[in-house]
Amino acid sequence: MQVFDYEDIQLIPNKCIVDSRSECDTTIKFGPKTFKIPVVPANMQTIIDEKLAEKLATNGYFYVMHRFEPETRIDFIKMMNQKDLFTSISVGIKKDEYTFIDQVVAERLKPDYITIDVAHGHSDRVIDMIKYIKNKLPETFLIAGNVGTPEAVRELENAGADATKVGIGPGKVCITKLKTGFGTGGWQLAALRLCAKAASKPIIADGGVRNDGDIAKSVRFGADMVMIGSLLAGHKESPGKIIEKDGQKYKAYFGSASQYQKGEYKNVEGKRMLVPYKGEIMDTLTEMKQDLQSSISYAGGKDLSSLRKVDYVIVKNSIYNGDVY
Ligand SMILES: NC(=O)C1=CN([C@@H]2O[C@H](COP(=O)(O)OP(=O)(O)OC[C@H]3O[C@@H](n4cnc5c(N)ncnc54)[C@H](OP(=O)(O)O)[C@@H]3O)[C@@H](O)[C@H]2O)C=CC1
Ligand SMILES: Nc1nc2c(ncn2[C@@H]2O[C@H](COP(=O)(O)O)[C@@H](O)[C@H]2O)c(=O)[nH]1
């Protein structure tokens, strides 16, 4: 099997067909809606909160609200409905989550998107939850994950998932690969490629994106949407306070399976780090859009579909040669 990751790949340019990068269309239809770029902030407590979800929805970006304050989800859906904004929430697979789905149905709420968010998505417990949600809320676009193999993608799709999320352990604050020896850490892009080849429905590439160019690479290898944590952490709108250290400003970014999230040291597969404070998230998202427009122009096209066909070379860790980071 050919394995590689984001830093090992360079995409090969084609002749440009636009007069300006502004002509390149980065929009993506994902589920029932179309979004400005194929990027979604990770559904983690240090990445997204209700205020940011509202801002993203208002401005044409996809979001997935996290599931770590479960009791607030019903009010969140109602609040977004009142403002005529789309709703996108996360659930787990424990018993309470079935009760939650029942409550959503009883209150006649219809979330536009639900993401089943667990570490090891290739399991009968996830399949049971997919079937339960699809039965109770057939119109909701259901994302299930996380997985890292073609078999898992097929099984979750066959169970009824409308999209699958690929990435076990490539995240910046992830320690799954170290603690368990398993995952797609270090070869996430190759795993994405394998999964996308098996998929018949959309794929979200989740984790491991370190540069804007990795978004174009994700699309090249089969992603319809790219979930990003660390690059979107540390903004003014990111949850959490600014932390001052040695005259520099930071914000905390911690894993959803970290001790900080769980409140105890048990089955910990995530860590915490400080991310330099970055200012407004809309500026970062605008830069991502501009960089993606540039990628599309190098692909020799006018929209994201052109990225899917470009040739590539494997340069094995050498794209940073000569660069100082
Ligand atoms: N993308 C990634 O690489 C990873 C992401 N995460 C994130 O961390 C958060 C917590 O995830 P998770 O622990 O699944 O959620 P939960 O704590 O809600 O656990 C869900 C259920 O699955 C069980 N479970 C968890 N991991 C495994 C496993 N490896 N094998 C069998 N059963 C398992 C848990 O039981 P029990 O705890 O008793 O085993 C629990 O019953 C999520 O947001 C997830 O996305 C975590 C690790 C990897
Ligand atoms: N193994 C773990 N993975 C985690 C944890 N919390 C979140 N995540 C995953 O990371 C991505 C974000 O990755 P990044 O490289 O963009 O920072 C996120 O979407 C989850 O899938 C965790 O505690 N352990």
Automatic annotation (TrEMBL):
It catalyses: IMP + NH4(+) + NADP(+) = GMP + NADPH + 2 H(+). Keywords: NADP, Oxidoreductase. InterPro entries: Aldolase_TIM (IPR013785), GMP_reductase (IPR050139), GuaC_type_2 (IPR005994), IMP_DH/GMP_Rdtase_CS (IPR015875), IMP_DH_GMPRt (IPR001093). The active site is at C174. Its EC number is 1.7.1.7. The keyword Ribosomal protein does not apply. Residues 5-310 form the IMP dehydrogenase/GMP reductase domain. GO terms for cellular component: cytosol; GMP reductase complex. NADP(+) binds at residues 203-226. GO terms for biological process: purine nucleotide metabolic process. Pfam families: IMPDH. It comes from the Bacteria. GO terms for molecular function: GMP reductase activity; oxidoreductase activity, acting on the CH-OH group of donors, NAD or NADP as acceptor. Catalyzes the irreversible NADPH-dependent deamination of GMP to IMP. It functions in the conversion of nucleobase, nucleoside and nucleotide derivatives of G to A nucleotides, and in maintaining the intracellular balance of A and G nucleotides. Belongs to the IMPDH/GMPR family. GuaC type 2 subfamily. This is GMP reductase. The lineage of its organism: Bacteria, Bacillati, Bacillota, Bacilli, Lactobacillales.
